[in-house]
Amino acid sequence: FQAVVDHETWVMNLKEANLYDYPIWYKLYSTRSAYQMPSLLPQDWDNLLNKMVTDNALFDIYYKNYWKNSPVRPTCDSECKKRMICDLRSGRSHDRKELCQELESRIDGNTRTSWRTWIYNGLALSLEDMHFTLN
């Protein structure tokens, strides 16, 4: 049984390479280390995807690495997050509906504000405004 043990991504700064007339490569990340994965077996990738659904900090690390730490990477909202995680889960476009529906609904559930939270936040802001008005 043979398996990939780890993956490393190396990058260079193109501006520096042009300035010094040669590239200076540095390791951006190691997959297992960056995502705290015990291995790169399919089950560990699936666990990573499931964690990224609810762990925004972990997803942000993935997104930063996906863009090779580019300072001009676009922002990624919940629709972007759903698309990216679904792309990781599905290998073929016609698998998306079957493989991504549950992930997408979990992301939607984590990003939507419940009506109780909405009312509580509105009430807290109203009380705060009243406090300033009374002083």
UniProtKB/TrEMBL annotation:
<keyword id="KW-0325">Glycoprotein</keyword>
<dbReference type="Pfam" id="PF19272">
    <property type="entry name" value="ASMase_C"/>
</dbReference>
<feature type="domain" description="Sphingomyelin phosphodiesterase C-terminal">
    <location>
        <begin position="5"/>
        <end position="88"/>
    </location>
</feature>
<keyword id="KW-0378">Hydrolase</keyword>
<dbReference type="InterPro" id="IPR045473">
    <property type="entry name" value="ASM_C"/>
</dbReference>
<protein>
    <recommendedName>
        <fullName>Sphingomyelin phosphodiesterase C-terminal domain-containing protein</fullName>
    </recommendedName>
</protein>
